[in-house]
TrEMBL record:
Residues 11-130 form the Glycosyltransferase 2-like domain. It comes from the Bacteria. This is Glycosyltransferase 2-like domain-containing protein. The keyword Membrane does not apply. GO terms for molecular function: glycosyltransferase activity. Gene3D superfamilies: Spore Coat Polysaccharide Biosynthesis Protein SpsA, Chain A (3.90.550.10).
Amino acid sequence: MGVKLMKPLVSVIVPVYNVEEYLPECLDSILSQTLRKIEIIAVDDGSTDNSGSILDDYARKDKRLKVIHKENEGVSEARNEALKHVRGRFVGFVDSDDWIDREMYEVMYRMAADKKMDIVMCGYVREFAGHSRVKNMGIKDGTVIKGKDGCRQFLRKMIGPAAGEIPVTESLDMHGVIWNKLYDARLLKDIAFCSLKEIGSCEDLLFNLYAFNNAESIMFIDMPYYHYRKTSRVSVTGRYRPNLVEQRKRLIDLIHDFLCQNGYAPVFYEALNNRICLGVMGLGLNIIAKDNKAGCIKKVGQMREMLSEEYIANAFSKFDITELPLHWRVFYRFAKNKNGMGFYIMVKAIKLLINIVR
């Protein structure tokens, strides 16, 4: 029997594209939430597998699921379309190859509503093939941040590390994801996701900068309610993207424009500078991707060209590597000196270690 349509407390946005293998687990985990007054807005972004049919089958059984079918444009455009249909007081996001614990939105909604929080965040689990790993967010359970200044300081951590903070590449986008957060819907008015065709990645970070800029209260719950499936993303993130350097430059420009337009202090620009330097790891991994058909010498040249980009070279001229562990000092020294061969060898070694850890 279908569930009677009701005014939702939480709207959950799910962009969907060719995930028939994982989609039922994702939908089951949302529809079985202990918080019953929810709506799920699933946008089928032109899937060519059975994802669209799966969504329609689920929608016939549970009226809380609204399905929108559209031509393929990308995840940002799918989320933007869903935002037009939100009816809930709060908004959450779930990726269609992930899943969530049954009590996630019950707990987060209660905290947001009872304590009058604009944004509530929780921990998450990285799900690998055969094992799981809880992500250490580095925030104490029950932490509450109030006031514009406090919310801006958290926003700064999303941009990058500042002086005295250990710059860890792996944690660069840990706070900037959207799917472990519940937002007051009022914060999201007039905010849209930037197309990945324009910036390549980190569309959720840009979205969060504007959302957190509007916020006046944030709360963190140290419970890993969200399950982020790493195995399904390996093939996607491992593809060679020839325009990634240009797209990354566009992303940096947009973050810089955001800081200028909203009157942020110099420490925010320092954090952005450090993000640029830490980001060369991902740019290097892109160059050595298997489907980059260039030979070794050509890839070394691509490394050198990337490190010689004006915005990257300028960032490294201010990047302090003295407090880093030895191996990272060596890695970033190669980058700082635009040493394409040394950087290429280090990136290959790091890629090998990543595969071993997985």
